[in-house]
Design brief:
It is built from 5 helices and 13 strands. It has about 240 residues and is of the alpha+beta class.
C-alpha cells in the first residue's frame, strides 16, 4: 500500500514539474527574466547585488506601432517622444527588423524596441569572451541609433551611433569598487591610464556603440533586496549629450 502511495505521489510530482517547468522556461527566455547587478558602475540608481526584473520583448508590438502612428500629443515633450519613437521604429525597419505593418501577426518581438533615452538595459558584453566574468552588463542608454553622442568626461570626443545600435554608459562617475570582477577592474585601470578617463565603468566609451541584437532587455523593477523594491528610474543628463544628426 505504501509503495503504491509513494508511486502515485511521485507521478503527481513529476506531472507538476512537467506542467510548470516548460512554461516557466519559455517565459524566462522570451518575456521576463531576472538579472543581478554586479559592481558599482550604476550607483546610485542601482547597487551591487540588486536583482532586476528585465522585460525581454515587446508584447503585441503591432499595438505599439498603431499607438505611435495614430496618437496625438498634447505637449511639446510628448510630441518629441512621439517623433523619436517613430524615427527609431523606421530605422529598425530599414535594418530588417519586422516593424510596422509587417509585424501585425507577431505576438511578441525580441529584443524590445528602445526609443527612449535614459532607460536601463541589460546586454551581452561585446568583450564577454575576453572577460567571461562580465558576460552581461547593466548600463543606461545615452544615445539612440542615428544620433550623435558626446561621451561623458570627454567633451572633445564626438561619436555617431549606427542606426541599429545604442550608446550606453554607467551612472557612477567614481572609481569602481567592484571586488568580485578583478578582470573588469584591471581593464578599467588600463583605460584610465591610457585615456585619463576617471570613470571605471566598462561601456560604450570602451568598445563603442552596442548592436541592439546584444540587448537582453529593459530593466523595469528592482525586486531584491526588499528594502530597494521599486521601479528602475529613467532619466537623462541635465545637459543633453545626444542629438539627431
Amino acid at each position: 500500500m505504501n509503495s503504491a502511495s509513494s508511486s502515485s505521489s511521485l507521478r503527481r510530482t513529476l506531472t507538476s514539474i512537467a506542467l510548470i517547468v516548460p512554461p516557466a522556461k519559455f517565459i524566462s527566455d522570451t518575456f521576463y527574466s531576472l538579472y543581478r547587478v554586479q559592481g558599482s558602475s550604476m550607483e546610485p540608481a542601482l547597487q551591487d547585488g540588486d536583482v532586476l526584473l528585465v522585460r525581454k520583448a515587446d508584447v503585441f508590438p503591432h499595438l505599439d506601432w498603431k499607438r505611435w502612428t495614430s496618437s496625438s500629443s498634447s505637449s511639446y515633450e510628448e510630441e518629441e517622444r512621439h517623433q523619436t519613437a517613430l524615427r527609431v521604429i523606421a530605422q529598425d525597419a530599414q535594418s530588417g527588423r519586422p516593424i510596422g505593418e509587417n509585424n501585425v501577426g507577431y505576438t511578441y518581438l525580441h529584443p524590445p524596441t528602445i526609443h527612449q533615452l535614459g532607460v536601463v538595459v541589460v546586454y551581452r558584453a561585446p568583450d564577454a569572451e575576453k572577460y567571461p566574468t562580465s558576460e552581461y552588463r547593466v548600463k543606461r542608454v545615452v544615445g539612440l541609433g542615428g544620433q550623435i553622442v558626446r561621451p561623458r568626461e570627454n567633451w572633445h570626443r564626438i561619436e555617431r551611433v549606427p542606426s541599429f545600435a545604442l550608446w550606453v554608459e554607467g551612472d557612477n562617475n567614481e572609481e569602481d569598487s567592484n571586488k568580485d570582477d578583478e578582470e573588469d577592474e584591471k581593464e578599467a585601470s588600463a583605460i584610465k591610464r591610457s585615456t585619463t578617463n576617471h570613470c571605471k565603468s566598462i561601456d560604450s566609451r570602451t568598445y563603442g556603440p552596442i548592436c541592439k541584437n546584444l540587448v537582453e532587455g529593459v530593466a523595469e523593477r528592482i525586486i531584491w533586496p526588499p528594502s530597494r523594491w521599486g521601479v528602475v528610474s529613467s532619466f537623462t543628463p541635465s545637459v543633453p549629450r545626444s542629438w539627431w544628426a
